[in-house]
Structures are given as structure tokens and as C-alpha cells.
Design goal:
The complex is a heterodimer of chains A (94) and B (174).
Chain A (H helix, E strand, L loop, with lengths): L1 H9 L3 E6 L2 H7 L3 E4 L14 H17 L5 E3 L20
Parallel strand pairs in A: 1-2, 2-3
Chain B lengths: L2 H19 L1 H10 L21 E6 L3 E3 L16 E4 L8 E3 L7 H5 L7 H9 L5 E2 L2 E4 L7 H19 L4 E5 L2
Parallel strand pairs in B: 1-5, 1-6, 1-7
Antiparallel strand pairs in B: 2-4, 3-6
Helix pairs in contact in B: 1-2
Classes of the chains: A alpha/beta (94), B alpha/beta (174).
């Protein structure tokens, strides 16, 4: 996935990746990554938990504006099934 | 399908489920994965406000339209092709072909992997300007198919996104 992100960014389009394995992201170096140590198949969270999914999407889109250093990997540190999420209220970016 | 292929497919599906449920095993797989190392990192700042942006999704989770050809699970080195997913595609027209992870939850609620429906909702709320066409790959690509991905299919997707004037892309793995 990181390789595709790099190709897209090379074409002049900003990208942000959700990554589950930090090791791979550190080697492939996508332009911007959000690292979530969650089970495979659940990059944006649990099924039917729309608040959590929006929370992750909001965080990732925000990274499109806040990350200034190419190759940055953000670690929000959200634990799997042990966090309480709130629906993002402010989507105005930047 | 030959008996040996069927057996191999059953083994890889079982292994995929194990990787999905045992994080330690998944991380060990990640450390051993022969990832291509990127020296220079391409980087373009996003300057347009989000509410004017056209966003597209790219996943490597093996999502495709039910009417499209499945990804090739017969080749253990993977399948570097991609599928074009129109932004208006309803979730019930999409399915997943990917033996290397447990996608039962994603098939129940595709927003956890490929959030087209949530993206459309954000457009209707005025959070995003619009959605572009999205794209899907089947991750788990090994040589010699990595070359095909690097030289042909990933740049082709990048070109399509560019032609459609997409401003930003959110990528999600399997």
C-alpha cells in the first residue's frame, strides 16, 4: 500500500495511509502514515461503530495538513476495543 | 481447481485468519516481509481547504465489484492488478477476494476498510467537496509482481487520479 501511496504522491496528489505494521511503514516510507496496532481487516475500526470510523478518518485527513516532515508516522495510540470515541465536530481544515 | 490448489487455499485462508487475530504473529510477519525501502519520500503539501477537496480512497484489501473479475488467489506471489470502484457504488455491489486476512467484519460493514458510504455522507454534509473514483488492489504482492505494481499498475492509478483532479487520497490496508 505504501508503494501505491508513493506513486500517487509522485503524481502530485497528497496521500495519507493507515498502517497496521509500523515495521513495514518504516521501510517503505509512505509520505504520511497513521499507525494503528489493530487487527488486520479493521484499519478504520470496528463494524457498526461509525463514531470510531469517523474519528479515525478525521485524524487521518487532519494529518494531510499537519504533517510537514515527509515520511512521518503518527501514533495516536488508540487501544483496540478499549477507547471511548467522540464524533468529530470540527471538520474545517486546515 | 486441483485438490492441491484447494488445500493451499485453505491453508492460506487459515493463516490469514490467524494473522488477523494474533497481533504478535502479524507483527512477526511484518518484520520478515521483504518490503522495498524508500530512500527519498515524495511529498506534496495539501493547500486546498478540505470542504473544496476531491477525495478518493485506495485500499489493498482486495475489494471489487461483484461484476468484476476476482483477484487471482491461485498465484502465491499475489496479483498486482487493480479494480476501479465508482464513487456511487452501493456497498452491496462490492465484495472482497483476499485470502490473507479475515474480512468477515469488513464484509459486514465495509466502512471499516473502504469507507465509500461514509465518504458520500461527508460530501452530503459539506465536509468534503466531492469523491473521486476509488481503486482497490489485493495486498500481499511479492516479486516479480512488485515490479509490475511499481512500473505499471500503481502509476496507472496515480494517472487516473490526476486526470480526475483528485486532491487527496486516503489509503487503507487489509
Amino acid at each position: 500500500m505504501g508503494l501505491v501511496a508513493r506513486a500517487v504522491e509522485t503524481a502530485g496528489i497528497a496521500t495519507v495511509c493507515i498502517v497496521g505494521l509500523r515495521d513495514i511503514a518504516e521501510r517503505v516510507r509512505p509520505p504520511r502514515s497513521v499507525h494503528l496496532k489493530w487487527p488486520f481487516g479493521h484499519p478504520l475500526g470496528e463494524p457498526d461503530n461509525q463514531v470510531q470510523q469517523l474519528h479515525v478518518i478525521h485524524y487521518a485527513l487532519k494529518a494531510l495538513y499537519t504533517v510537514k516532515e515527509p515520511g512521518t508516522i503518527l501514533d495516536p495510540g488508540w487501544r483496540w476495543r478499549r477507547e471511548i470515541y467522540t464524533e468529530p465536530s470540527d471538520w474545517a481544515m486546515p | 481447481m486441483f485438490e492441491a490448489d484447494r488445500l493451499r487455499q485453505r491453508v492460506s485462508r487459515a493463516y490469514g485468519r490467524l494473522l488477523s487475530h494474533i497481533p504478535m504473529l502479524a507483527r512477526r510477519w511484518g518484520r520478515r516481509f521483504a518490503a522495498i525501502t524508500g530512500e527519498v519520500v515524495p511529498f506534496v503539501p495539501l493547500r486546498k481547504p478540505l470542504h473544496t477537496c476531491r477525495l478518493a480512497f485506495v485500499t489493498t484489501g482486495g475489494v471489487h465489484l461483484r461484476s468484476q473479475p476476482r483477484f487471482d488467489m491461485g498465484d502465491s506471489r499475489g496479483d498486482p492488478s487493480f479494480r476501479v470502484i465508482p464513487a456511487a457504488t452501493p456497498a452491496d455491489q462490492l465484495t472482497i477476494t483476499h485470502d490473507y486476512y479475515d474480512h468477515r467484519n469488513a464484509e459486514r460493514d465495509l466502512n471499516i476498510l473502504f469507507p465509500l458510504a461514509l465518504g458520500r455522507e461527508l460530501v452530503s454534509q459539506g465536509v468534503l467537496g466531492s469523491l473521486g473514483t476509488s481503486y482497490s488492489f489485493m495486498g500481499h504482492i511479492e516479486p516479480p509482481h512488485v515490479e509490475t505494481l511499481l512500473r505499471h499498475t500503481a502509476p496507472a492509478v496515480a494517472r487516473h487520479l490526476r486526470q480526475e483532479q483528485v486532491d487527496a487520497v486516503l489509503l487503507t490496508p487489509a
